[in-house]
Protein backbone atom coordinates (compact mmCIF):
# COMPACT_ATOMS: atom_id res chain seq x y z
CA UNK A 1 0.00 0.00 0.00
CA UNK A 2 1.47 3.39 -0.97
CA UNK A 3 2.59 5.52 1.96
CA UNK A 4 0.27 8.37 1.00
CA UNK A 5 -2.72 6.07 1.53
CA UNK A 6 -1.62 5.63 5.13
CA UNK A 7 -1.34 9.36 5.75
CA UNK A 8 -4.84 10.39 6.78
CA UNK A 9 -4.12 14.12 6.62
CA UNK A 10 -2.37 14.27 3.22
CA UNK A 11 -5.54 14.03 1.04
CA UNK A 12 -7.02 16.99 2.93
CA UNK A 13 -3.85 19.01 2.38
CA UNK A 14 -3.71 18.13 -1.31
CA UNK A 15 -7.34 19.18 -1.75
CA UNK A 16 -6.47 22.55 -0.22
CA UNK A 17 -3.44 22.94 -2.50
CA UNK A 18 -5.26 22.06 -5.72
CA UNK A 19 -8.14 24.42 -4.92
CA UNK A 20 -5.67 27.31 -4.86
CA UNK A 21 -3.34 26.41 -7.69
CA UNK A 22 -5.95 26.67 -10.40
CA UNK A 23 -5.55 25.44 -13.95
CA UNK A 24 -3.29 26.19 -16.90
CA UNK A 25 -1.39 29.49 -16.94
CA UNK A 26 1.39 30.96 -19.04
CA UNK A 27 1.82 34.59 -17.96
CA UNK A 28 4.93 36.46 -19.08
CA UNK A 29 5.51 38.00 -15.62
CA UNK A 30 5.25 34.67 -13.82
CA UNK A 31 8.80 33.39 -13.24
CA UNK A 32 7.50 29.83 -13.18
CA UNK A 33 6.54 30.15 -16.82
CA UNK A 34 4.04 27.69 -18.23
CA UNK A 35 2.17 26.18 -15.27
CA UNK A 36 -0.77 23.84 -14.75
CA UNK A 37 -2.35 23.01 -11.38
CA UNK A 38 0.70 24.57 -9.74
CA UNK A 39 3.21 22.37 -11.61
CA UNK A 40 5.73 24.32 -13.70
CA UNK A 41 6.86 23.13 -17.11
CA UNK A 42 10.42 22.57 -15.83
CA UNK A 43 9.21 20.38 -12.95
CA UNK A 44 6.99 18.42 -15.33
CA UNK A 45 9.84 17.98 -17.81
CA UNK A 46 12.07 16.56 -15.07
CA UNK A 47 9.30 14.26 -13.86
CA UNK A 48 8.59 12.88 -17.35
CA UNK A 49 12.31 12.39 -17.96
CA UNK A 50 12.68 10.46 -14.68
CA UNK A 51 9.89 8.13 -15.79
CA UNK A 52 11.43 7.57 -19.22
CA UNK A 53 8.53 9.40 -20.88
CA UNK A 54 8.73 11.87 -23.77
CA UNK A 55 8.61 15.59 -23.07
CA UNK A 56 5.27 17.35 -23.51
CA UNK A 57 3.50 20.53 -22.45
CA UNK A 58 2.42 20.71 -18.81
CA UNK A 59 -0.96 21.71 -20.25
CA UNK A 60 -1.60 17.98 -20.71
CA UNK A 61 -0.52 16.77 -17.27
CA UNK A 62 -2.81 14.05 -15.86
CA UNK A 63 -4.37 14.02 -12.39
CA UNK A 64 -2.28 10.97 -11.49
CA UNK A 65 0.91 12.79 -12.46
CA UNK A 66 -0.12 15.86 -10.45
CA UNK A 67 -0.73 13.78 -7.32
CA UNK A 68 2.53 11.86 -7.75
CA UNK A 69 4.58 15.03 -8.21
CA UNK A 70 3.01 16.81 -5.25
CA UNK A 71 3.50 13.85 -2.95
CA UNK A 72 7.08 12.95 -3.83
CA UNK A 73 8.58 16.23 -5.08
CA UNK A 74 7.10 18.50 -2.43
CA UNK A 75 5.37 16.73 0.47
CA UNK A 76 8.05 14.10 1.06
CA UNK A 77 10.96 16.13 -0.32
CA UNK A 78 10.27 18.94 2.15
CA UNK A 79 9.98 16.52 5.07
CA UNK A 80 6.33 17.48 5.67
CA UNK A 81 5.40 13.80 5.85
CA UNK A 82 7.62 13.44 8.95
CA UNK A 83 6.26 16.45 10.85
CA UNK A 84 4.10 15.34 13.78
CA UNK A 85 1.87 18.43 13.75
CA UNK A 86 -0.26 18.25 10.55
CA UNK A 87 -0.85 21.99 10.71
CA UNK A 88 2.86 22.70 10.50
CA UNK A 89 3.15 19.97 7.85
CA UNK A 90 0.67 21.89 5.69
CA UNK A 91 2.61 25.13 6.18
CA UNK A 92 5.81 23.41 5.03
CA UNK A 93 4.10 21.56 2.15
CA UNK A 94 2.39 24.69 0.82
CA UNK A 95 5.58 26.72 1.14
CA UNK A 96 7.57 24.07 -0.73
CA UNK A 97 5.15 24.32 -3.63
CA UNK A 98 4.97 28.09 -3.74
CA UNK A 99 8.54 29.00 -2.72
CA UNK A 100 10.64 25.87 -3.19
CA UNK A 101 11.62 22.88 -1.06
CA UNK A 102 14.84 24.44 0.23
CA UNK A 103 13.00 27.55 1.44
CA UNK A 104 10.34 25.43 3.14
CA UNK A 105 13.01 23.46 4.99
CA UNK A 106 14.84 26.64 5.95
CA UNK A 107 11.73 28.30 7.38
CA UNK A 108 10.75 25.15 9.24
CA UNK A 109 14.20 24.98 10.80
CA UNK A 110 14.22 28.66 11.76
CA UNK A 111 10.70 28.48 13.20
CA UNK A 112 11.62 25.65 15.61
CA UNK A 113 8.22 24.14 14.88
CA UNK A 114 6.31 27.25 16.00
CA UNK A 115 3.36 27.94 13.71
CA UNK A 116 3.19 31.68 14.35
CA UNK A 117 6.91 32.09 13.77
CA UNK A 118 6.75 30.07 10.55
CA UNK A 119 3.89 32.24 9.29
CA UNK A 120 5.82 35.43 10.12
CA UNK A 121 8.97 34.19 8.38
CA UNK A 122 7.02 33.21 5.28
CA UNK A 123 5.30 36.59 5.01
CA UNK A 124 8.63 38.37 5.41
CA UNK A 125 10.17 36.24 2.67
CA UNK A 126 7.37 37.14 0.25
CA UNK A 127 7.85 40.82 1.02
CA UNK A 128 11.57 40.55 0.35
CA UNK A 129 10.85 38.89 -3.01
CA UNK A 130 8.54 41.72 -4.05
CA UNK A 131 10.93 44.45 -2.89
CA UNK A 132 13.91 42.95 -4.69
CA UNK A 133 12.00 42.47 -7.95
CA UNK A 134 9.26 45.02 -8.68
CA UNK A 135 7.79 42.78 -11.40
CA UNK A 136 6.68 40.42 -8.62
CA UNK A 137 4.88 43.12 -6.61
CA UNK A 138 1.59 42.32 -8.33
CA UNK A 139 1.68 38.84 -6.75
CA UNK A 140 2.38 39.97 -3.16
CA UNK A 141 -1.23 40.36 -2.07
CA UNK A 142 -2.08 36.93 -3.49
CA UNK A 143 0.90 35.36 -1.72
CA UNK A 144 -0.08 36.91 1.59
CA UNK A 145 -3.68 35.79 1.13
CA UNK A 146 -2.43 32.27 0.55
CA UNK A 147 -0.64 32.29 3.89
CA UNK A 148 -3.86 33.41 5.56
CA UNK A 149 -5.88 30.72 3.80
CA UNK A 150 -3.38 28.04 4.82
CA UNK A 151 -3.60 29.19 8.42
CA UNK A 152 -7.42 29.19 8.40
CA UNK A 153 -7.58 25.77 6.77
CA UNK A 154 -5.00 24.24 9.09
CA UNK A 155 -6.69 25.44 12.27
CA UNK A 156 -10.17 24.54 11.05
CA UNK A 157 -9.63 21.18 9.37
CA UNK A 158 -6.38 19.63 10.60
CA UNK A 159 -5.62 18.19 14.06
CA UNK A 160 -2.46 19.08 15.98
CA UNK A 161 -1.24 15.47 16.09
CA UNK A 162 -1.19 12.84 13.39
CA UNK A 163 -3.53 9.90 13.57
CA UNK A 164 -1.71 6.57 13.47
CA UNK A 165 -2.04 4.78 10.11
CA UNK A 166 -3.23 1.62 11.89
CA UNK A 167 -4.49 0.72 15.33
CA UNK A 168 -1.64 -0.44 17.49
CA UNK A 169 -2.30 -2.92 20.30
CA UNK A 170 -1.51 -0.36 22.96
CA UNK A 171 -2.78 -0.58 26.52
CA UNK A 172 -2.82 2.57 28.62
CA UNK A 173 -2.32 2.77 32.34
CA UNK A 174 -1.75 5.53 34.84
CA UNK A 175 1.11 5.63 37.35
CA UNK A 176 0.81 6.84 40.92
CA UNK A 177 1.38 10.43 39.80
CA UNK A 178 -1.42 10.30 37.26
CA UNK A 179 0.90 10.09 34.25
CA UNK A 180 -0.36 7.97 31.37
CA UNK A 181 1.97 5.08 30.51
CA UNK A 182 1.70 3.47 27.06
CA UNK A 183 2.57 -0.19 26.91
CA UNK A 184 3.76 -1.78 23.68
CA UNK A 185 4.54 -5.44 23.36
CA UNK A 186 6.74 -7.20 20.81
CA UNK A 187 3.87 -7.74 18.37
CA UNK A 188 3.35 -3.99 18.30
CA UNK A 189 7.03 -3.46 17.46
CA UNK A 190 6.94 -6.09 14.71
CA UNK A 191 4.01 -4.28 13.08
CA UNK A 192 5.95 -1.02 12.94
CA UNK A 193 8.28 -0.09 10.13
CA UNK A 194 11.09 2.34 10.85
CA UNK A 195 8.94 5.40 10.18
CA UNK A 196 6.16 4.07 12.41
CA UNK A 197 8.71 3.51 15.16
CA UNK A 198 9.99 7.08 14.86
CA UNK A 199 6.43 8.40 14.92
CA UNK A 200 5.67 6.50 18.14
CA UNK A 201 9.10 7.05 19.64
CA UNK A 202 8.08 9.61 22.31
CA UNK A 203 5.57 7.14 23.78
CA UNK A 204 8.00 4.23 23.49
CA UNK A 205 10.72 6.21 25.24
CA UNK A 206 8.29 7.22 27.98
CA UNK A 207 7.48 3.56 28.54
CA UNK A 208 11.15 2.60 28.60
CA UNK A 209 12.03 5.32 31.09
CA UNK A 210 9.17 4.16 33.28
CA UNK A 211 10.46 0.58 33.10
CA UNK A 212 13.96 1.65 34.04
CA UNK A 213 12.64 3.63 36.98
CA UNK A 214 10.35 0.80 38.09
CA UNK A 215 12.20 -2.41 37.12
CA UNK A 216 10.21 -4.63 39.47
CA UNK A 217 6.96 -2.76 39.70
CA UNK A 218 5.16 -0.47 37.30
CA UNK A 219 1.48 0.29 37.34
CA UNK A 220 -0.32 -0.85 40.46
CA UNK A 221 -2.93 -2.92 38.63
CA UNK A 222 -0.37 -5.20 36.92
CA UNK A 223 0.65 -8.37 38.68
CA UNK A 224 3.89 -9.75 37.22
CA UNK A 225 5.14 -13.27 37.98
CA UNK A 226 8.85 -13.60 38.71
CA UNK A 227 10.67 -13.72 35.37
CA UNK A 228 7.35 -13.59 33.52
CA UNK A 229 7.97 -16.57 31.28
CA UNK A 230 4.66 -16.47 29.41
CA UNK A 231 1.68 -14.35 30.41
CA UNK A 232 0.44 -12.27 33.30
CA UNK A 233 -2.97 -11.03 34.39
CA UNK A 234 -3.91 -7.37 34.23
CA UNK A 235 -6.69 -6.53 36.69
CA UNK A 236 -9.66 -4.49 35.54
CA UNK A 237 -9.30 -0.74 35.75
CA UNK A 238 -10.66 2.56 34.44
CA UNK A 239 -8.51 4.08 31.72
CA UNK A 240 -7.66 7.77 31.59
CA UNK A 241 -10.37 8.24 28.94
CA UNK A 242 -12.93 6.81 31.40
CA UNK A 243 -13.30 3.52 29.50
CA UNK A 244 -13.64 0.47 31.74
CA UNK A 245 -11.16 -2.32 30.97
CA UNK A 246 -11.96 -5.83 32.20
CA UNK A 247 -9.42 -8.38 33.48
CA UNK A 248 -7.32 -9.89 30.71
CA UNK A 249 -4.20 -11.98 30.11
CA UNK A 250 -1.28 -10.26 28.40
CA UNK A 251 1.87 -11.81 26.99
CA UNK A 252 5.20 -10.64 28.27
CA UNK A 253 6.85 -8.22 25.92
CA UNK A 254 8.38 -4.81 26.00
CA UNK A 255 7.27 -4.27 29.60
CA UNK A 256 9.99 -6.62 30.77
CA UNK A 257 12.99 -5.58 28.74
CA UNK A 258 14.72 -4.38 31.89
CA UNK A 259 17.30 -1.60 32.11
CA UNK A 260 18.09 -0.07 28.75
CA UNK A 261 21.57 1.41 28.42
CA UNK A 262 20.85 3.30 25.19
CA UNK A 263 17.66 4.78 26.59
CA UNK A 264 19.62 6.06 29.58
CA UNK A 265 22.35 7.46 27.36
CA UNK A 266 19.95 9.35 25.07
CA UNK A 267 17.28 10.23 27.60
CA UNK A 268 15.76 13.65 26.89
CA UNK A 269 16.83 13.77 23.24
CA UNK A 270 14.31 14.08 20.42
CA UNK A 271 14.67 12.12 17.16
CA UNK A 272 15.96 15.22 15.38
CA UNK A 273 18.73 15.63 17.95
CA UNK A 274 20.06 12.09 17.49
CA UNK A 275 22.49 10.88 14.85
CA UNK A 276 21.61 7.91 12.66
CA UNK A 277 24.06 5.71 14.60
CA UNK A 278 22.55 6.76 17.93
CA UNK A 279 19.04 6.06 16.67
CA UNK A 280 20.10 2.70 15.25
CA UNK A 281 21.61 1.79 18.63
CA UNK A 282 18.36 2.63 20.35
CA UNK A 283 16.28 0.77 17.77
CA UNK A 284 18.47 -2.33 18.05
CA UNK A 285 18.05 -2.27 21.82
CA UNK A 286 14.31 -1.81 21.86
CA UNK A 287 13.22 -4.02 18.98
What is the structure about, briefly put?
By secondary structure, the protein is mainly alpha-helical.
Care to describe what's here?
The protein is mainly alpha-helical and 287 residues long. It has two domains: 3-157, Chitosanase, subunit A, domain 1; 171-286, no CATH class. Helices cover 48% and strands 9% of the residues. It has eleven helices and nine strands. The chain has helices at 10-21, 41-50, 63-76, 86-99, 101-111, 115-132, 140-157, 186-190, 194-213, 261-265, 276-286; strands at residues 24-25, 35-36, 39-40, 171-174, 180-183, 231-234, 237-238, 244-245, 248-251. β4 (171-174) and β5 (180-183) form a beta hairpin. α4 packs parallel to α6 and α6 (115-132) runs antiparallel to α7 (140-157).
Helix fraction? 40-55%
Biggest sheet character = 3 strands, antiparallel
| Strand order, largest beta sheet | 1-2-3
The mean pLDDT is 75
Number of helices, counting only DSSP H or I runs of 4 residues or more: 11
- How many distinct domains? 2
Spatial gap, N to C terminus: 23 Å
Low-confidence stretches: 166-171, 215-230, 251-260
Could you state the order of secondary-structure elements as H and E? HEEEHHHHHHEEHHEEEEHH
The assigned structural class equals mainly alpha
Taken as a percent bin, the fraction of beta residues is 5-15%
Enter the CATH topology name of the largest domain.
Chitosanase, subunit A, domain 1
CATH architecture identity of the largest domain: Up-down Bundle
**What is the molecular shape?**
globular
CATH class term of the largest domain: Mainly Alpha
Amino acid sequence: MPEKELDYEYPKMLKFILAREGGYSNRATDKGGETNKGITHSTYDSYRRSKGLPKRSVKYITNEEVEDIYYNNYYKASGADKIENPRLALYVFDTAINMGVSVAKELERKSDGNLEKFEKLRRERYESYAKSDKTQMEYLKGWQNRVTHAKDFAHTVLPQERELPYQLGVEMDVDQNGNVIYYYDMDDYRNMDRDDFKRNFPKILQQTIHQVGHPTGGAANVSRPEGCAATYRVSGYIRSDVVKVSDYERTCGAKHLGAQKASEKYRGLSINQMTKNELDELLDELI
